Amino acid sequence: MNSGSKLRILLAEDEDAMRTYLVRALENAGYEVAAVDRGTSAIPLLENERFDLLLSDIVMPEMDGIELAQRCAEISPHTKVMFITGFAAVSLRASREQPHAKVLSKPFHLRDLVLEVERAFGEPQELSL
Q1: Helix (H) and strand (E) counts for the chain?
Q2: How far, in Å, CA of 51 to CA of 78, rounded?
Q3: pTM, 2 dp
Q4: Residue 1 banded pLDDT, cuts 50, 70, 90
């Protein structure tokens, strides 16, 4: 990746307040973010654009995050996957079905999210939280 381009994150989160909060935090940390409110809305973006990371809530209407991650692996195999969830049991299922994906449990601190994203890419971003 050239140093002039920002890492691109596709965020799928059905809760408006959480989605706004996460977009702001990730953009402040220097990432380029596209946000959708459901998995089915993320599919056309994955098909037509390049994303470095899919950050997805697990529990969403129409298509859950695990199914979205499976579709992402087919459409865009280079895209890393990270899940966010407020449900411990769902977190266990995600770990079983997507063993390479990091699962962050709500509530989490924005700094923790940014650190996990940095870890996924193996490079520090400017942190202005």
Answers
A1: 5, 5
A2: 8
A3: 0.85
A4: very low
How many whole angstroms separate alpha carbon 33 and alpha carbon 54?
A: 10
Question: What is the rounded distance in angstroms from the CA atom of residue 61 to the CA atom of residue 23?
Answer: 20
Cα separation of 104 and 75, whole Å? 24
Tell me 51's DSSP state: -
The tens digit of pLDDT for each residue in 10-57 reads 999 999 999 999 999 999 999 999 999 999 999 999 999 999 999 999
Residue ranges of E strands in 15-127: 32-36, 53-57, 80-85, 102-105
Q: Which residue has the tokens 């691109």?
A: 8
What is the CA 101 to chain-centroid distance, rounded?
10
- Amino acid identity at 125: Q
What mean pLDDT is reported for the chain?
A: 88
- 1-21 as b/e: b if 16+ CB within 10 A: eeeeeebebbbbbbeeebbee
